[in-house]
Amino acid sequence: MKKILIIQNKRIGDVLISSVIANNYKAKYPDSEVHLMAYDFTHGVIQNNPNIDKIISINEKELKKFGNLIKMIFQVRREKYDIIFDPYSKLQSRLICKFGGATQTVGHKSRKKIGNLGYYTHPVGILETKTQICGKAIEDRIHLLQQVDTFEKINYEPKIFLTEEEQQFRVPENYQDKKIIMLGILGSTPQKSMPYEYIAQIIDHIASTFDCYLLFNYAPNQKAEADKIYALCQNKANIILDIYAPSIRDFAVLMNQCAVLVSNEGGTVHIAKALNKPTFTLFSPYINKDDWSSFEDGKFHKSVHLLDFLPNAISELSYEQNKEIERNPRELYLKLTPAMILPELDSFLKDNLQ
């Protein structure tokens, strides 16, 4: 029986899609012991997953302290793992791999071409392009898995495993007479958030075109920004204000009761997909759509990106220019207008609100 560790010290969507490593390894080796190390605020997407035997909690700020990192390395050594997978491949996780005592360590080579430096026994290059409908981010993780064994049957789809009690949850009775559209009105960062005036226009269009309730989703620390978007909305009649999911797990439970998700790209999109809910995703200009547009068929899962409409809006850029777009994408974001988005959104909602 082998003991496996997956390190995913990144955000919600990354943790959820990295669980495909656990799901596929456990499917082939049900007697193996699989641990997943993740930031404390991400645990909601992997709780109750039968393929993960233990969740190791880490705090983002604390792990960056050298003393805490050393303690974590010794903790990993005591576990005596056979294999460590490191999908995100950042300094802290690389050091854990290098000194964690595992027989096999698998992670991505540095994009800065500084060499492997002995971090991994199996250094793996990032795939240049996607070859599967799951998107490159998931495919890269499966590629790591395939370095240590042959897996003839691969399940690329991340899953959220709700408890029976969570599945029985229902929204208040006064909201059960219409379908509910979950709206991810803000991205996880300002750079992933569509301009507020555009989001308000999209919300107004949905409210006037479809007889549904509209439910805002945002992080607790984004309440003031969500209020700004609500204030810009002209048609507030069917916007639900008295239901809110304060945690990631609460969001998953609530999303399970909604008909569709319309959202800025981020972890909530991956959660909705893992619950088999239709999704319409708004991509920030600086995000590579091929990396994260998983399982898109143009009907059940659909997305829009500036380059879908203006293919030459972003030319070949230097590393520094790309970083500048990431820091301030608003100028490009403003080119992705509601007039472009709404026909695509209408088609999606008509297909999935029947």
Task: Describe the model.
- The protein is α/β, with parallel strands linked by helices.
- The chain has two domains: 3-145, Glycogen Phosphorylase B (Rossmann fold); 169-352, Rossmann fold, CATH 3.40.50.
- It has 15 helices and twelve strands.
- It has helices at 12-28, 60-63, 66-79, 91-99, 136-145, 164-167, 196-209, 223-232, 248-255, 267-274, 289-292, 306-309, 319-327, 330-333, 338-352; strands spanning 3-8, 33-39, 54-58, 83-86, 104-108, 122-124, 180-184, 213-217, 239-240, 260-264, 279-282, 301-304.
- It has a six-stranded parallel β-sheet with strand order 3-2-1-4-5-6, with helices on both faces.
- Helix 3 packs across helix 4 (91-99).
- It is globular.
- It starts with a strand and ends with a helix.
- The mean pLDDT is 92.
Summarize it.
The chain has 354 residues and is α/β, with parallel strands linked by helices. The chain is 38% helix and 16% strand.
